[in-house]
Amino acid sequence: MKLHILLTATVLACTTLGVLAQDKDKKRKEIGFIVGLQRSNLDYNAIITTNVAEEAKTNIGGSFFLNSRLIGHFITLRTELGFYSKGGTYTGAGAAFSETNLSYVAAPALLLQTKIGFLKAYAGPQMGFLITAKSKTGNIENDVKAAFKTTELSGVIGAEMNLPLRLMAGARYNFAINNISEIPQGTSRPGMYMIYVGLRLRK
Q1: What residues contact residue 170 under an 8 Å CB cut-off, 6+ apart?
Q2: pLDDT for 132-167, tens place per residue?
Q3: Strand locations in the chain (E)
Q4: Least packed by Cβ within 10 Å: which of 63, 74, 127, 191?
Q5: Cβ atoms 84, 104 nearer than 8 A
């Protein structure tokens, strides 16, 4: 719990720092949005003992971002607010095909290194806040929100490049740090890949 509070405070502090930096110099502001395909699984250890196989699930997600230059064109702080989903599909052991999908509001704070050739690499923490958790077997859908923690702490690493007409493209990997399962003796640390395109609205 103390770790969650500390990292949440870090995200909020970074966000505040970015906003203050923008107020001092409007030319240092860059805002925009990204949207892309996400491929994820829940990496749930309990299914190993039940002979059930988990496959990755594809979703769509995206976010709005605010870039704040910290050191010229070399280091930039990016804060985001967006939406993403994580989940998996399950088959095996004579069970019917089923799927689980978790929807989150995301708030990452990322440091960008903006001078690696034409690429911008970045990394940082992300807080996710669970909105919905649904499990579906056949035509029957159940609310399973009680089986998952309401917050997820994860790390983000990725790279992107600017394209003509203020467009951009990139890829990132999101990996859970905390166990998001509320089921006793169960652990779930989801991973998610995302390939995205975006638009810089102002620079």
Answers
A1: 34, 120, 158, 159, 160, 161, 195, 196, 198
A2: 999 888 788 999 999 899 999 999 999 999 999 999
A3: 29-41, 53-71, 75-92, 95-116, 119-137, 140-143, 151-162, 167-176, 191-202
A4: 74
A5: yes
List the structure tokens of 85. Answer: 């989903």
Q: How far apart are CA 36 and CA 123, in angstroms?
A: 18
Task: Say if strands 95-116 and 119-137 run parallel, antiparallel, or are unpaired.
Answer: antiparallel
Question: Which residue type occupies 143?
Answer: D
Q: Hey, what are 157's tokens?
A: 């690493």
Which residue reads 């203020």 in tokens?
166
pTM of the model: 0.78
Rounded (10°) CA dihedral 81, 38, 198, 115: 90
Q: Write out pLDDT tens, residues 105-141.
A: 999 999 988 767 778 999 999 999 999 999 888 788 9
Residues in the chain, overall count: 203
